[in-house]
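Reviewer 2 asked us to include a model.

Predict the structure of this chain.
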Amino acid sequence: MLVYDKAKYHDESVEEEGLPHEHADHHIVYFLRWLIENDLVSREMTKGGAGRALKAYRSGRQSIFWLFEWWDRCFVSDMVSAEARPFVDSYFDYQHGQYLADYDSVLVGELPSFFHVTYTDASYRLLAARVSARWDDFRTAAR
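Predicted model (structure tokens):
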């Protein structure tokens, strides 16, 4: 299992910025929501307690933040479908991937830091369009 990111890695930075605790989650939650909405989560995430939690989110009974908290504020490879894993491995990679650069160009702009992005549906749609384009490019290149 590969750990892509844990929100707790960012808690101190968010605190130093004087931002609400959940701002440490935003950059991960945007991407997880995209995975969920594109049916790219692993089968394991659809079974047992994880499956019930995912169903509660999908039905609108719980928020994406509640779901991420249920998942211990972690994003790991076991959460991603086999189909999407090569994309996530390369795109979400913090040192060599494009996700953070896309996050920055689409959402951060003139904000003081990466953590100042506020989570909104409108912002999600903007970033989701970019991630979807990257996903399409990845799948085309893989053919």
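The mean pLDDT is 95. Residues 121-142 form the longest helix (22 residues). We have added this to the supplementary material.
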